[in-house]
Amino acid sequence: MNSIKKFFKDYFSQKDFVKRLIIMNIGVFLMGFFLSFLIEVNLGTDPCTFMNLTLSRFLGLSFGNWQLLLNSCLFILVILFGRKLIGFGTIANMVFIGYIADFFCMVWGKTIPEHVFKEFPSRAIVFGIALAMFIFAVSLYINANMGVAPYDAIPQIISERVLKKVPFAVIRIAFDFTAIIIGIIFGGIPNIGMILMALFLGPVITLVGKFLNKHVFHL
Q1: Among candidates 117, 143, 119, which has minimal Cα distance to 36?
Q2: How far apart are CA 88 and CA 111, in angstroms?
Q3: Is 203 exposed, middle or buried (0-12, 13-18, 19+ CB in 10 A)?
Q4: Cα distances (angstroms) measured from residue 149 to each of 29, 110, 144, 182, 210
Q5: Going by fewer Cβ within 10 Å, which terminus of the chain is more open, N or C?
């Protein structure tokens, strides 16, 4: 009990808590918003979203409902084995991103002509902008340091508790690759967005982190 109290005391007393909370929420909203465009153009997303989209369609569930269900199961493991990784960002990610994406997909279906998402060059333009902004939104979310999404926490737990001698990067790549394989098994087709996400997500997270630390958090 004392360890839990200490965790929450340290969490709420971290420097620039309110700023981090605001930036995290902005990141989560923008992730869901721009993810809706990536879903509509269907040119690729991150491995987790690829798997969840495929499974939600296979099971006949909305993307938001399936994402919440899966994240809830993973969240139990995080509570048991990686409590230090939990924060407001964990809950916001697992609950809201899928539903935000579902909502805006519905909005685009009623307001934007289908050919914008299905025909080139408009399809490529929407994809390029949405992918860049989605990566930027992810970097905001991560650099806010307000907790890790359940999907992202699992490879960290595996690294710290099971495969201690294996580099984390290797574990993370294997974890993402497993998600891709599951998506393929259930009918998904990997696309260029997944490759671009892998190439640019790390560098953008680093750049945005440096900017926030210098100009917002003043670290």
Answers
A1: 117
A2: 33
A3: exposed
A4: 14, 31, 13, 19, 21
A5: N
- pLDDT 10s digits, 82-95: 888 888 999 999 99
CA atoms within 13 A on the CB side of 10: 12
Contacts for 57 with CB less than 8 Å, ≥ 6 apart: 187
Owner of token pair 């992202």? 152
Q: The whole model's pTM is what? A: 0.85
> CA torsion sign, 86 to 91 to 94 to 97?
negative
- Residues 115-170: pLDDT tens digits? 999 999 999 999 999 988 998 898 888 888 888 899 989 988 998 888 888 888 78
Domain boundaries, the chain: 17-215
CB 191 within 8 A of CB 44: yes
Q: DSSP states of 63-129 as a string?
A: HHHHHHHHHHHHHHHHHHH-GGG-SHHHHHHHHHHHHHHHHHHHHHHHHS-THHHHSTTHHHHHHHH
